[in-house]
Design a protein that fits this description.
This protein has six helices and no strands. By secondary structure, it is mostly helical. The protein folds into two domains: 101 residues, Multidrug-efflux Transporter Regulator, Chain: A, Domain 2 (Orthogonal Bundle); 61 residues.
Length: 175
């Protein structure tokens, strides 16, 4: 007897869109939190399925697209509901297109890996921290000679700006 899949184990989190294809009935039911009977009813209504030797396989994206279109057609008799579904469908299509574009850009490696970005930010933050912590040491003698608070404030401001400019020049060198 085959082991029954739990709904929460159907499609592990973090899987890619490509892994939404060729799913078994239990995986689809688990992902959509529907019963196998509901999926069978949907298939009778036109839900797309990939015929196999003994069982059907499914593409989750095709099911979601079909379901949205089905609900729009069903609501077509009620103009207000149909208009709302049409707006939702347009938003859904835009989100889907944006996600596809992001996936394509990610495959082309247009984005830096998160670990590299973290490392770069840490490096810059360490440089700024070191420069800012060194300000007191660099200007304490000058500050002790000045009695004018505005002059002292200006000296600190100049040193902070130098530290920030140093960080910017380090970033420019890395580019």
């Amino acid at each position: 007897m085959a082991k029954k899949e739990k709904a929460e184990d159907a499609i592990p989190k973090g899987h890619t869109r490509a892994e939404w294809r060729g799913l078994k009935q239990a995986q689809v039911c688990g992902a959509l939190k529907i019963s196998p009977q509901t999926l069978n009813n949907w298939r009778d209504l036109g839900c797309p399925a990939i015929p196999g030797d003994k069982t059907c396989k499914y593409d989750l994206r095709d099911i979601l697209d079909w379901r949205v279109a089905y609900e729009i057609k069903k609501a077509a008799g009620n103009e207000g509901v149909a208009a709302e579904f049409s707006e939702q469908l347009e938003r859904y299509r835009k989100i889907k297109a944006d996600a596809a574009e992001f996936d394509l850009d990610a495959k082309k490696k247009k984005y830096l890996p998160v670990d590299e970005v973290r490392s770069m930010v840490r490096k810059m933050a360490d440089l700024v921290r070191a420069d800012l912590q060194g300000i007191a040491h660099r200007i304490s003698v000058k500050l002790s000679r000045s009695e004018d608070p505005e002059v002292c404030e200006e000296m600190v401001e100049v040193e902070i700006n130098k530290a920030l400019m140093n960080m910017a020049s380090v970033q420019d060198e890395d580019d």
